[in-house]
Design brief:
By secondary structure, the protein is α/β, with parallel strands linked by helices. It has eight helices and ten strands.
């Protein structure tokens, strides 16, 4: 019943919209590529799908914005994307969105939680990435997981935002390490980005705006250069909540003279902003339609 309601909602959102981009391979008769009772198989970019636990960590606006920011700058700079790395990939949403945008690129995910890594692997296979994608189970701080260090054109990181002991721990599977720094924080992500990046590569991070100074210090300490930055306001009238950062190899010059106005996700009445609507379409989500649920 819940899946039927989700499919009906999807039909109302999509209308006659036809998604572009690569098509998924699908389950191809493989029972392991069908959702289990505690899972859902949900639309991501275009016709691609992602496996998620019903009551666990699920992909978010943070993931969408991190993927968009890196892809946006790579496209704007005309960077040829041959290899993508998704650090702490979780269930795989950020890397999958980037691989959908750059269908010729190889995708590598690194994830420490075995259940999340397993879900990401199945999503890679469902979407036809068997020949150009893999998920490695382990700690992103371990250099042994990246024998091809220094070759990635686009690297993503969505670190946990909270130090341990600073909030309530969820009892849902996967959620604690996604929110709390159980295996280090943004500093470890910046070090891993530095190791992974090709000389002209780009690293995209999303973190909390209130911790901007900490992130800038981590970028500098890792020997990276900050190339661009943009605050994110989730609802009009509120203070910025998130920060999008683009970094590159040390010594590279910034790509912006000054930071642009904050990216607004939703208007005061809850409707998505025009820019957020454009971002979603750019990343393979259907355009807004009058009367459709958001």
């Amino acid at each position: 019943m819940q899946d039927d309601r989700r499919q009906e909602r999807e039909r109302r959102i999509r209308g006659d919209w036809i998604p572009g981009g690569p098509t998924p391979a699908g389950a191809m008769g493989d029972p392991t590529l069908e959702p289990a009772a505690d899972e859902t198989l949900d639309r991501l970019g275009g016709d691609w799908r992602i496996f998620q636990l019903r009551r666990g960590h699920r992909y978010s606006t943070d993931d969408l914005l991190a993927a968009w920011y890196g892809c946006h700058w790579a496209t704007r700079l005309g960077l040829a994307i041959g290899a993508i790395l998704d650090l702490g990939c979780g269930i795989g949403s950020v890397g999958l969105l980037a691989a959908w945008r750059f269908p010729g690129a190889r995708l590598t995910g690194i994830e420490a939680q075995e259940r999340s890594a397993g879900l990401a692997r199945r999503s890679y296979r469902y979407n036809g990435l068997q020949e150009r994608g893999e998920v490695r189970h382990g700690d992103l701080r371990d250099p042994a997981l990246l024998p091809e260090a220094g070759t990635f054109d686009l690297v993503f990181g969505s670190p946990p935002y909270l130090p341990r002991g600073t909030g309530s721990v969820s009892l849902r599977p996967q959620c604690e390490p996604c929110r709390f720094e159980t295996r280090g924080g943004v500093e470890g992500y910046c070090e891993a980005i530095r190791r992974a990046l090709a000389p002209e590569g780009l690293g995209a991070l999303v973190f909390t705006w209130r911790d901007r100074e900490r992130v800038l210090a981590a970028v500098a300490a890792a020997g990276l250069s900050l190339l661009a930055q943009r605050a994110v306001i989730t609802r009009a009238g509120q203070a910025p909540l998130l920060d999008l950062l683009l970094c590159g190899a040390g010594g590279r010059a910034p790509l912006q003279e000054r930071e642009p106005p904050a990216l607004l996700v939703r208007q005061a009445d809850g409707r998505r902003s025009e820019e957020m609507g454009r971002i979603r379409v750019e990343m393979g989500f259907p355009p807004e339609r009058a009367g459709a649920p958001t």
